[in-house]
Amino acid sequence: MPFIELQSNLPASSFSEDFLKKLCSCAAAALGKPVERMNVVVKPGLPMLIAGSCSPCVMLSVSAIGVTDTADKNKEHSAKIFEFLTGELGLAEERIVIVFHALQPHQVGKKGTVMSFL
């Protein structure tokens, strides 16, 4: 049950429903998870600064159970997600930052319990 949160200073018009679906599919494929388990939030139009510049940028947070817990895994995920974001948004790699969070099953609640019991 991965969680994808994209924050950007790009306007909301840059993030259509089609973009959200493509981001969901890309992240699901990169993480090896079914699309039906993905959770995606996009927060556009934020005041942001990356590397000392307020030029268009994206910060992406990827939180998941069991697939974001090693450097080797995250290197693979990063390459796939960067390819998608640079292609879709026209941003240089220097304007994108991805943060990976390794979650434990007890940290994710669903259906009145936590994933440890589902």
Description:
It is globular, with a radius of gyration of 15 Å. The longest helix is centred in the last third of the chain and has 19 residues, at 71-89. The chain has 118 residues and is an alpha/beta fold. The strands form two sheets. It has a four-stranded mixed sheet, covered by helices on one side. The chain has one domain (2-117): 2-Layer Sandwich (Macrophage Migration Inhibitory Factor). The protein has helices at residues 17-31, 71-89; strands at 3-8, 39-43, 58-65, 96-103, 109-110, 113-114. The model has no long low-confidence stretch (mean pLDDT 97).
Topology at a glance:
Blueprint: E1 3-8, H1 17-31, E2 39-43, E3 58-65, H2 71-89, E4 96-103, E5 109-110, E6 113-114
Parallel strand pairs: 1-2, 3-4
Antiparallel strand pairs: 1-3, 5-6
Protein name: D-dopachrome decarboxylase
GO molecular function: D-dopachrome decarboxylase activity; phenylpyruvate tautomerase activity
GO cellular component, one term: extracellular space
Which structural traits does this protein have?
single chain; 26% strand; 2 helices; Tautomerase/MIF_sf; alpha/beta; 6 strands; melanin biosynthesis; Macrophage_inhib_fac; two-stranded antiparallel sheet; four-stranded mixed β-sheet; phenylpyruvate tautomerase activity; Macrophage Migration Inhibitory Factor; 118 residues
Arithmetic mean of pLDDT: 97
Helix and strand element order: EHEEHEEE
CATH-wise, what's the superfamily?
Macrophage Migration Inhibitory Factor
Q: Any idea what the radius of gyration is?
A: 15 Å
Structural category? alpha/beta
Number of helices: 2
Q: Provide the helix percentage.
A: 25-40%
CATH level-two architecture: 2-Layer Sandwich
Looking across the biggest beta sheet, what order are the strands in?
2-1-3-4
Q: Per DSSP, what share of the residues sits in E-state strands of 2 or more residues?
A: 25-35%
Q: Tell me the domain tally.
A: 1
Q: What fold name stands as the CATH topology?
A: Macrophage Migration Inhibitory Factor
Q: How far is the N terminus from the C terminus?
A: 12 Å
* Strands, total number: 6
What is the approximate shape? Answer: globular
InterPro entries: Macrophage_inhib_fac, Tautomerase/MIF_sf
Protein name: D-dopachrome decarboxylase
GO cellular component, one term: extracellular space
GO biological process, one term: melanin biosynthetic process
